[in-house]
Design brief:
Number of strands: 20
GO molecular function: UDP-N-acetylmuramoylalanine-D-glutamate ligase activity
Keywords: ATP-binding, Cell cycle, Cell division, Cell shape, Cell wall biogenesis/degradation, Cytoplasm, Ligase, Nucleotide-binding, Peptidoglycan synthesis
Helix content: 25-40%
Protein name: UDP-N-acetylmuramoylalanine--D-glutamate ligase
Family: Belongs to the MurCDEF family.
Oligomer: single chain
EC number: 6.3.2.9
CATH topology of the largest domain: UDP-N-acetylmuramoyl-L-alanine:D-glutamate ligase
CATH class of the largest domain: Alpha Beta
Largest sheet: 6 strands, parallel
CATH architecture of the largest domain: 3-Layer(aba) Sandwich
Number of domains: 3
Strand order of the largest sheet: 7-8-6-9-10-11
Amino acid sequence: MRLVVLGGGESGVGTAILGKQKGYDVFVSDFAKIKESYKEVLIKNSIDWEDEKHTESLILNADVVMKSPGIPEKAPIVKKLIEKGIPVISEIEFAASFTKAVTIGITGSNGKTTTTMLTYHLLKSAGLNVGLAGNIGKSFAEQVAEDKYDSYVLELSSFQLDGIINYKPHIAIITNISPDHLDRYDYKYENYIDSKFRITMNQTEEDYLIYDADDEAISDWLQKNKTRAKLIPFSLTKTFEQGVFIKNNTMEAIINQEEFTMETESIALEGKHNLKNAMAATSVAKLMQIRKATIRESLSNFQGVEHRLEKVLKIQNVQYINDSKATNVNATFFALDSMNSPTVWIVGGVDKGNDYNELMALVREKVKAIICLGVDNRKIIDAFGNVVDIMVEVNNMNDAVRMAQRITEKGDTVLLSPACASFDLFENYEDRGRQFKDAVHNL
């Protein structure tokens, strides 16, 4: 069996290692340059590879192809593979067939990293032998090759779900759905929604789907489509016979006839959206039969995720917050919604088809100045030019932070929440967040 891996990054190299271990004839091909550290791993494992090209004669003879999530379906080599009827799958699909471990799959437009990390924290604190993978950390395939975990918490992007055929998580979570990555879905929101719901397509009556019952796109889909999984909803406004809800400032979870309660103010993560992330993670902990005391302790000591509403420093009574991971409008909505003081908002980058109207009321209420940090800021200026008193354009992070410091007064907040991808001025959102933190520390 010939396995061709497209993309020599974390998921690609991990898949190559697992494929080789399972007796496949493996070849890795990357149209860009493969990082030196990954090349060393491939050479050490005697795996054939090429970079900066795709040699068709070495790819189109595959029995199965694992495509890295970053490569679009529209890529010429992928189109040719599909035309030839060669299965093109994701790392998750490939690796899942070689493990008996229980998997918890988490997807959503926002909140999935926090929910994944919090769920992992809950299970690990309870002493479970659990791995963390998917869109985060070390490759799932490589961890399956090492075979040391009984269960995995997997953060799954829509791109990873597009490449599944038989994979099913025992527990699936959909945190929420809002327009994102529409450039990859022919600008059709319904295609993106369907993509997210692939997480439950192979689930059976033995499995669970945990979801946000306040989310319109999720509720609509569930009304029109069927899943065989047992449903566990969570909500800030509704109550359920089975599910998680809020009553008198208390989070109540009723799952499989068992009840768990916790005061919302004891939960370490702040903001309504984080309360939802906590509800989703609590549902998993209850299904995995973790003790109530452990759940309470884990929810009250969890520190959050880097680049997601991360408090950096307070300087002259001005709080600087790094929310670089907010790469779409919905994520920035949550960030602005949780601001309690006049805010200087740093925004901009590569627009993925954003509609800024959703933010209008929050910007009017909370934002005193906007700093545009992008190559093309036209849309942001058109949207908010008449709404805020101060609108500034900069093209590097140091200028953005210095300008913010000039504009602020005591008691204000400076929020980096770009609502856009980062590739115009930065390597990725992590690089953008780190540059922000460095600039703040240098003030």
